């Protein structure tokens, strides 16, 4: 009952706000409406007071609206570019986790604006499902599932040249630390070694620590070399090849994740990873897909689509700027991200992205690679409609933004009379 | 005066010149490679033929009869003996040859389409989708001709299964392509047939485009283009002769190729694959493409940026007595810059009077500057220079319709700018104040938006020439309109340095002043002396600092917040021991210290509130009055800091050196542990890295301890501490580095390690990992650094300098790209953000349609403030325990330290960097690409 009442009161404010705003022809976004009503709920104004407050808020809101023809693009570019000169260039910094290096500052901002496929320091923040969050061991287990374990991480790989074998001795201590069983290693070996060239057998020792041996297979079974391929017949070459191949074998983990670190944050354990593979990590059981993220915008785009990529761009850019202690209004970052994601994929700011796709020939020519754009315009018979800023400056006309977008005509009163007559 | 635009260009159509058109538009056929005869007269049918236009006085153009400045120039023509390929289209020709039948010219089914972008040639272009060359024999579906593979031998040679296709053949093939198929190949035959890409005639640009220069020695020096055209003509002539004489095929082909080379370099002298044509001196010629390209090319240098008249540049210096809206201009400059005054029947007499004064009138009766007139423009457009001699006569000529160019006077509006112009606040409108001396002067509060200081900076000034421009400048560009920055929705113009110190001295612990002092303090202001706050024990009336400060506040201002000096004490607001809780009620400062948090740029809460609630004009008044009050207060109270401000007692020094030697031992132990392999490895780190992390942490702690010990003796009675704590300049970190220890030096975020083999300097043993050997400076600036420490400190310092140099160019290029990508976006009438193509970028700007300038630190409406204002109570407590205004982004302690550190670095750069490099010179705004 009480809850119902509360809800009704809440609704009351919302309706009232909507009504007053409608009267003033102000279109309040839903978020703002809820925020106002949340504030009002705390203050508990009388109906008259509420009307007064809402009127004032709506009026303030109306006065804070952007003007028509405001050159918001330039505003955004300047607001992001200007603090760039104040940012540090130091590539490495410690963010939260002292053990990990992350690109920050100007290089990171440039990287975002460039829409690089792979960031220079890919990194993920992996959250774990609610019931496992506080359990360090469970989180560690998930961490081990994510982090790539290669054969040398859990076993020693050696070659015995006289016998022409590669001996792989599992180290049980490392295996338990990594949660790897002998069967896992065996599986990795079987799956990754070319059975036509090598054969696998068990070696000495027993139980989990029993070693493996890789023998060279009977040359008869070996894959036929291609016509003009020169085959090195010396067997120890092959042996070396086998040992190198074995060392590269991934036993478990998500490809692309070099390291996983666990850190306590408030009342939960969070996994930070070096390297990023969003799609792979999300498939791990126990990972909270809703809160797990990566700093690779492109991966987010691939897994979740453009809207998510847009949000990620805004978030990453604003984090980069605020980490440097630079305040930049989120609206500027939104605009940049919106421009970058407007076509349904992520386009870079620069000649390969947005600037190269501009409609105006002159604007493109003035930016970079002048001659190519002009020559091409001629053969395709392009016309420049002179709608943008750069092209109008080039031909010496007022630009189409701000006061240049409108014309004022003053007709003296007597002329008006004449016109009417 | 011309009103508005008489003509407007609606669109520009790009197209190809056909050979016929080139012939039609040419005024003369050029056949001689010579330019001038022995008398220096242009040779007919030569490259300087008088039909092409004139560049010398006293000659008339043979085509239009115009003189220099009247004749726009006319094109000529060179008929090429044999066709040649246009370099810029070689790739395009290849595509067409490959995509059409070699016999019938129809489009083939697998014709390659045009690349979506125009930068196929640039090295960093994204890889083109790999297209398999067709393996099987291709047959033309129309005539069943067997097709062959076309190879483009860069830059301009085409081959078909080994043998060369001559440009003539190329042209013949392109001619065969029917219009419909041309269209199907993404070209537009209406604006250019493909065969025109193979040149048969070459237009010769008018002489105005390639003027020759007469050197002092009387020698003529021709333009690079003329040189190139001479080459083309010469070879063209030889080729024609040889061909007509029936010379051997080989000779003709060689000459043909040479002609191709000259025509190619005439278009682009940086074509890859061929050597650039050079001047006699060995300098590569600047031909057509080079004229357009790059930062100094026509586009970026002359079309996107233009030179202007009515501008001035000089050194800047500060003047706290000027309003923030003003700029002080030297008389010399004021006399050189003019404003056009249109003469009407109403102002005719005034204009006459002005003209009568001549160009340099003496001071007025009151001894002040008087403006003169430099030029008089008569109704017929004739421009008469007004001089002392003819001023009377000129005055007689003044009549309605004339324009009088009068010199600047106080109150004129001008634009003021400092490069690099990184944001719109880099160019603002000021009102003129004519002053003696030779520098531009302005209020110190205007420094942050321009990023100016007075160590030799120069700034530019532009005088507006039209009424529309002045009106726009006044409404949109005035300094007071830019107090709030669109970047973060807070003030970017505010008090700084001495103003803040002065405000602190005036309000901290509320000092009292006697009549003489108050009279002095208010001498620069127009306030009536307020009633005294009380009477002291000697019966003298006194006034308080807070009272005097309150004079500058608007009467309706009510605000509460924590001062910058707040040390996280939890005293009750009104009775804070440290006077660090600011309470302003109805424009009266009841409690608290006024410092950076209240009035500084970027964070001043009082300033922000005034700008938002009382309007920009009131904020300007506050800033003007506050700068005057604070400068006089500074003169009265004074503040000096010297080296002994960082003195700490002997006991403290001992304590510091004890702490430092302890950490040295500790580091030694850690290194020992590492050597013995006993150091516990951090997860995911090698042992070496672990050691570094731990050592750095310990050394960092040691510096802080040293700083803390020193800090105990640095209280608010210390002038240097006042500067740091009030937020005026410097930080506590700077002070502790002077009094405690400087701390670890680093390069690339790591302890120093480079220099000699396995050591930093020969003073240390190889492989020494201890504190001193790897760049820990345990001395402080006051004591002085040891030679090794000094060296290490320089290493760290150099990194900072390199960093700044690299950063400016990198961020400059980023900003250029951002601007280019976003420049056309605007909010249209329906509230959506669109680009020039009309594509909707955002349905509502920033999702709420709020202008960031008018936002409250990003929030649409400061809800708490409004609710408080209307109801007198709040939803949330005004100030959280951190002392930040609610709504301001929270700053953690860690971040504060980072900021302080960054600031101290920045400050160091300010001083050193500006002397060494003067980036404002040259006017180049952005770094290289």
The domain tally of chain A reads: 4
CATH class of the largest domain in chain A, named Mainly Alpha
**Euclidean distance between termini CA atoms of chain A:** 72 Å
The CA-CA distance between the termini of chain B, in Å, is 43 Å
- Annotated CATH topology of the domain at 311-483 in chain B: Barwin-like endoglucanases
Q: Would you identify the regions of chain A where 5 or more consecutive residues have pLDDT less than 50?
A: 1-9
**Could you name the CATH class of the domain at 311-483 in chain B?**
Mainly Beta
CATH topology name of the largest domain in chain A, in short, is: PTS-regulatory domain, PRD
Give the fraction of residues assigned to helices of chain A: 40-55%
Oligomer: heterodimer
Structural class of chain B: alpha+beta
The number of helical runs of chain B is 26
Rounded to an integer, what's the Rg of chain B over CA atoms? 37 Å
Strand content of chain B: 5-15%
Largest interface: A-B, 126 and 122 residues
Give me the side-by-side strand order of the main sheet of chain B. 13-19-18-21-12-20
Secondary-structure map:
The complex is a heterodimer of chains A (about 425) and B (about 950).
Chain A: H1 2-23, H2 30-43, H3 47-63, H4 72-84, E1 92-94, E2 101-103, H5 105-113, E3 123-126, H6 136-146, E4 149-150, H7 151-154, E5 155-160, E6 165-170, H8 172-178, H9 182-192, E7 198-202, E8 212-216, H10 235-247, E9 250-252, E10 259-265, E11 268-274, H11 278-282, E12 293-294, H12 297-304, H13 306-323, H14 330-341, H15 361-367, H16 370-380, E13 383-384, H17 389-395, H18 413-420
Antiparallel strand pairs in A: 1-2, 3-11, 3-12, 4-9, 5-6, 6-8, 7-8, 10-11
Helix pairs in contact in A: 1-2, 1-3, 4-14, 5-13, 12-13, 13-14, 15-16, 15-17
Chain B: E1 12-13, H1 19-25, E2 26-29, E3 75-85, H2 90-99, E4 138-139, E5 146-147, E6 150-153, E7 157-160, E8 163-165, H3 167-176, H4 179-184, E9 198-204, E10 213-214, E11 220-221, H5 224-245, H6 249-267, H7 288-292, H8 298-303, E12 311-318, E13 326-330, H9 331-336, E14 338-342, H10 348-357, E15 373-377, E16 383-385, H11 391-397, E17 403-407, E18 413-417, E19 427-435, E20 440-442, H12 447-450, E21 458-463, H13 467-477, E22 484-485, E23 490-491, H14 498-507, E24 512-514, H15 515-521, E25 534-535, E26 541-544, H16 545-550, E27 559-562, E28 581-585, E29 588-591, H17 596-599, H18 605-613, H19 616-637, H20 650-675, H21 687-712, H22 719-725, H23 732-739, E30 743-744, E31 746-747, E32 750-751, E33 776-777, H24 787-822, E34 826-827, E35 833-834, E36 840-842, H25 863-871, H26 893-916
Parallel strand pairs in B: 2-3, 12-20, 13-19
Antiparallel strand pairs in B: 3-9, 4-5, 6-7, 7-8, 10-11, 12-21, 14-17, 15-16, 15-17, 18-19, 18-21, 22-23, 24-26, 25-26, 27-28, 28-29, 30-33, 31-32, 34-35, 35-36
Helix pairs in contact in B: 5-6, 10-11, 14-19, 18-19, 20-21, 21-23
């Amino acid at each position: 009952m009480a809850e119902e009442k509360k809800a009704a009161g809440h609704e009351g404010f919302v309706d009232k706000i909507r009504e007053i705003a409608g009267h003033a022809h102000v279109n309040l976004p839903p978020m703002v409406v809820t925020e106002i009503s949340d504030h009002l709920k705390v203050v508990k104004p009388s109906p008259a007071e509420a009307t007064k407050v809402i009127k004032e808020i709506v009026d303030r809101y109306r006065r804070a609206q952007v003007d028509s023809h405001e050159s918001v693009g330039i505003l955004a570019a300047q607001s992001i570019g200007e603090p760039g000169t104040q940012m540090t260039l130091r590539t490495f910094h410690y963010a939260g986790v002292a053990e990990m290096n992350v690109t920050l500052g100007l290089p990171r901002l440039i990287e975002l604006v460039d829409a690089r496929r792979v960031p220079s320091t890919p990194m993920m923040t992996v959250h774990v499902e609610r019931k496992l969050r506080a359990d360090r061991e469970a989180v560690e287990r998930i961490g081990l599932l994510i982090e790539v374990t290669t054969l040398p991480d859990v076993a020693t790989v050696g070659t015995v040249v006289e016998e022409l074998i590669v001996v792989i001795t599992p180290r049980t201590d490392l295996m338990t630390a990594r949660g790897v069983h002998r069967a896992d290693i065996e599986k990795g070996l079987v799956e990754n070694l070319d059975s036509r060239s090598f054969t696998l057998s068990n070696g000495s020792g027993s139980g989990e620590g029993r070693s493996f041996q890789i023998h060279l297979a009977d040359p008869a079974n070996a894959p036929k070399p291609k016509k003009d391929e020169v085959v090195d017949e010396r067997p120890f070459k092959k042996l070396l090849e086998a040992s190198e191949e074995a060392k590269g074998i991934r036993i478990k983990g998500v490809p692309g994740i070099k390291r996983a670190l666990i850190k306590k944050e408030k009342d939960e354990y969070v996994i930070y990873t070096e390297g990023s593979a969003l799609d792979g990590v999300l498939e791990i059981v126990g990972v909270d897909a809703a809160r797990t993220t990566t700093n690779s915008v492109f991966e987010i785009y691939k897994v979740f689509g453009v809207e998510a990529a847009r949000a990620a761009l805004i978030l990453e850019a604003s984090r980069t700027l605020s980490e440097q202690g630079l305040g930049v209004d989120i609206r500027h970052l939104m605009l940049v991200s919106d421009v970058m994601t407007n076509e349904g994929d992520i386009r870079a700011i620069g000649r390969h992205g947005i600037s190269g796709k501009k409609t105006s020939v002159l604007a493109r020519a003035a930016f970079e690679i002048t001659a190519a754009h002009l020559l091409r315009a001629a053969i395709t018979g392009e016309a420049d409609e002179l709608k943008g800023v750069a092209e109008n400056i080039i031909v010496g006309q007022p630009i189409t933004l701000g006061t240049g977008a409108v014309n004022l005509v003053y007709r003296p009163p007597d002329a008006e009379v004449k016109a009417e007559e | 005066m011309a009103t508005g635009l008489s003509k407007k260009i609606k669109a520009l159509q790009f197209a190809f010149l056909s050979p016929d058109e080139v012939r039609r538009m040419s005024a003369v056929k050029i056949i001689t490679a010579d330019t001038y005869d022995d008398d220096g007269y242009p040779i007919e049918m030569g490259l300087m033929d008088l039909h092409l236009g004139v560049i010398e006085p006293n000659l008339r153009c043979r085509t239009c009869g115009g003189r220099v400045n009247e004749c726009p120039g006319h094109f000529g023509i060179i008929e090429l003996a044999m066709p040649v390929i246009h370099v810029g289209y070689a790739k395009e020709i290849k595509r067409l040859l490959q995509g059409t039948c070699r016999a019938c010219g129809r489009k083939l089914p697998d014709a390659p389409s045009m690349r979506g972008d125009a930068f196929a040639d640039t090295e960093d272009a994204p890889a083109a989708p790999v297209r398999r060359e067709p393996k099987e024999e291709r047959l033309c579906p129309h005539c069943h001709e067997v097709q062959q593979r076309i190879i483009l031998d860069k830059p301009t040679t085409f081959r078909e299964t080994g043998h060369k296709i001559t440009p003539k053949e190329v042209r013949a093939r392109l001619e065969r392509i029917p219009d419909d198929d041309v269209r199907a190949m993404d070209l537009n035959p209406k604006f250019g047939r493909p065969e025109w890409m193979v040149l048969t005639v070459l237009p010769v640009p008018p002489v105005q485009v390639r003027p020759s220069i007469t050197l002092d020695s009387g020698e003529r020096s021709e333009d690079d283009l003329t040189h190139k055209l001479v080459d083309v003509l010469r070879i063209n002539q030889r080729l024609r002769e040889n061909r007509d004489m029936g010379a051997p095929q080989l000779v003709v082909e060689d000459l043909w190729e040479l002609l191709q080379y000259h025509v190619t370099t005439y278009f682009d002298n940086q074509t890859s694959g061929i050597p650039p044509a050079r001047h006699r001196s060995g300098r590569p010629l600047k031909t057509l493409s080079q004229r357009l390209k790059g930062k100094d090319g026509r586009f970026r240098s002359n079309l996107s940026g233009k030179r202007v008249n009515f501008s001035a540049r000089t050194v800047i210096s500060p003047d706290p007595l000027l309003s923030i809206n003003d700029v002080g201009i030297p008389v010399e400059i004021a006399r050189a810059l003019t404003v056009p005054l249109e003469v009407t029947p109403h102002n005719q007499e005034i204009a006459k009077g002005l003209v009568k004064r001549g160009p340099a009138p003496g001071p007025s009766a009151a001894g002040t500057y008087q403006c003169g007139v430099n030029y008089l423009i008569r109704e017929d457009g004739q421009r008469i220079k007004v001089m002392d001699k003819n001023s009377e006569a000129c005055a007689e000529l003044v009549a309605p319709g004339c324009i009088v160019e009068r010199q600047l006077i106080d109150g004129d509006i001008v634009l003021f700018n400092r490069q690099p112009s990184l944001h719109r606040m880099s160019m603002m409108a000021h009102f003129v104040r004519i002053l003696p001396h030779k520098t531009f002067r302005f209020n110190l509060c205007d420094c942050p938006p321009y990023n100016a200081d007075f160590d030799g900076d120069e700034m530019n000034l532009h005088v507006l020439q039209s009424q529309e421009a002045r009106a726009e400048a006044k409404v949109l560009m005035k300094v007071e309109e830019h107090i709030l920055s669109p970047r973060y929705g807070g003030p970017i113009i505010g008090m700084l340095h001495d103003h803040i110190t002065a405000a602190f001295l005036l309000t901290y612990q509320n000092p009292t002043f006697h009549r003489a002092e108050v009279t002095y303090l208010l001498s620069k202001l127009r306030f009536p002396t307020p009633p005294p706050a009380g009477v002291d024990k000697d019966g003298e009336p006194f006034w308080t600092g807070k009272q005097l400060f309150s004079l500058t506040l608007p009467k309706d201002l009510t605000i509460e917040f924590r001062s910058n000096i707040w040390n996280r004490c939890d005293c009750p607001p009104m009775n804070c021991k440290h006077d660090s809780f600011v309470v302003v009620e109805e424009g009266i400062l009841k409690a608290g210290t006024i410092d950076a948090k209240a009035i500084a740029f970027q964070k001043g809460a009082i300033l922000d509130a005034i700008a938002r609630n009382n309007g920009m004009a009131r904020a300007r008044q506050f800033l003007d009055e506050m700068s005057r009050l604070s400068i006089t207060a500074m003169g009265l109270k004074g503040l000096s800091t010297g080296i002994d401000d960082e003195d700490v007692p002997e006991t403290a020094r001992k304590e510091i050196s004890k702490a430092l030697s302890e950490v040295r031992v500790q580091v030694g132990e850690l290194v020992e542990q590492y050597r013995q392999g006993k150091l516990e490895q951090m997860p995911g780190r090698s042992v070496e890295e672990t050691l570094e992390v731990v050592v750095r942490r310990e050394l960092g702690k040691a510096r802080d301890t040293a700083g803390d010990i020193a800090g105990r003796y640095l209280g608010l009675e210390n002038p240097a501490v006042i500067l740091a704590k009030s937020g005026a300049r410097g930080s506590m970190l700077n002070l502790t580095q002077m009094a405690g220890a400087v701390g670890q030096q680093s390069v690339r975020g790591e302890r120093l390690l480079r220099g000699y083999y396995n050591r930093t300097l020969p003073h240390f043993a190889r492989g020494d990992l201890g504190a001193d050997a790897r760049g820990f400076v345990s001395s402080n600036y006051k004591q002085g650094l040891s030679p090794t420490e000094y060296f290490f400190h320089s290493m760290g310092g150099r990194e900072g300098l390199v960093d700044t140099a690299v950063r400016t160019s990198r961020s400059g290029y980023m900003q250029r790209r951002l601007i280019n990508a976003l420049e056309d976006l605007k909010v249209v009438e329906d509230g959506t953000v669109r680009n020039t193509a009309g594509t909707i970028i955002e349905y509502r700007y920033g999702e709420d349609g709020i202008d960031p300038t008018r936002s409250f630190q990003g929030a649409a409406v400061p809800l708490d403030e409004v609710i408080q204002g209307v109801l007198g109570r709040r939803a949330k407590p005004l100030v959280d325990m951190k002392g930040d205004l609610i709504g301001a982004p929270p700053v953690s302690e860690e971040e504060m330290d980072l900021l302080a550190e960054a600031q101290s670095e920045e400050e160091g750069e300010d001083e050193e960097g500006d002397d060494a490099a003067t980036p404002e010179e040259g006017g180049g705004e952005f770094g290289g690409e």
